[in-house]
Amino acid sequence: MARQEFSTSEPRPASSVVVAVALLLASATAAAHHSYIRIDRDTIIAFEATVLDFQWRNPHIYILIGVEGEDGQQIEWQIESGSTPILAHSGWRADSLEIGDVISVRAHPERGTDRNYALLESLTTAEGQVLRQGILPSQTTATTTSIAGTWKSRLEDHAPIEVLSALFAEFMDVPLTENGRESIATYDHDRENPNAVCYGYDLLAGLTSPHYMNQIEVHDDRVIIRDEWFDAERVIYTDGRGIPADAERRRLGHSVGRWDGDTLVVETEMFAEHRSPYGIGLASGERKRTVERYTLNEDGRSLTLDVFLEDPEYLAETFSGTLNWDYVPDFDFFRYDCDPDVATRFSYPE
């Protein structure tokens, strides 16, 4: 069956990513999320296809499909979607597709290249199940008396784009230094994207993402905070020690904490230099410092996270903002296990 192609003016969360981020960064340069830089989000192609391969791996899953061309010959298309934790939270499973399955596909094609490559909008299985990337809502009414547990960053109504929280959008309005503007202007998405080497982003990106779960463990002398994205884990010591000045610098830095009543206060320094910690080509330096304040709200179903970030080499001002996390004990917490062979697909082949 020949493919169908059409443009749509109907509002869709995915179609607004490039426009919204470009507006937020108009004073610097346009940005791209992962390997989506060449995706035409204003066009959808639709066709019936046969699954030739289904790779349930990270940082994104890939589906190789065969489409019958007008001459009756099979044409292969590579279809990309989100990571396995995101899709698992969206109702997918590792066996959702099998080789030989006949499916209906709607996708955004790549533009400006000669590849048959597209970003999945949705697919429908032969049984009529519709699969797409979109976190299912929590069904729990449970409450908690502690910040310990599984939490999800809330996608606020005023967030301008579906893949970022409102706080991250606010961060992108922070004035940059000359070094900050230069780092964005010279960023090479194909060669410097941290996803392409399974390196991952930094604290702000992980804390604000509404797609990945966060997990908190509270112990007598430490708190452990985990994030599904790139299997991030921080051990935050609350036993009075300071941040070691001679410690090895890390992507997530070194954290120490203290309790201010029922609020956990976390200070983090000793970050390693990072070429694109926020996914927009803006670098960060060794003088970066963050403070986080975690406070359980009275409803027992959410917490308030206040974030402070300074990085004088690249940010002209200190950034501060507030996030809301929702308690989601009914959500599983998945490992990411980034696959380097799959990660290289984030770079366009030369």
Set out the fold topology:
Layout: E1 4-7, H1 17-24, E2 43-55, E3 62-68, E4 74-80, H2 84-89, E5 102-109, E6 117-124, E7 130-131, E8 149-153, H3 166-171, H4 178-185, H5 189-192, H6 203-208, E9 213-218, E10 222-227, E11 232-237, E12 254-260, E13 263-269, E14 289-296, E15 302-310, E16 319-327, H7 340-343
Parallel strand pairs: 4-6
Antiparallel strand pairs: 1-2, 2-3, 2-5, 3-4, 5-6, 6-7, 8-9, 8-16, 9-10, 10-11, 12-13, 13-14, 14-15, 15-16
Short description:
This protein has 350 residues and is mainly beta.
Describe this structure in words.
This protein has 350 residues and is mainly beta. It contains 7 helices and 16 strands. The chain folds into 2 domains: 132 residues, Nucleic acid-binding proteins (OB fold (Dihydrolipoamide Acetyltransferase, E2P), Beta Barrel), CATH 2.40.50.140; 179 residues, no CATH class. The strands form 2 sheets. Strands 11-10-9-8-16-15-14-13-12 form a 9-stranded antiparallel sheet. Strands 2-3-4-6-5 form a 5-stranded mixed barrel. The longest helix is centred in the N-terminal third of the chain and has 8 residues. The protein is globular.
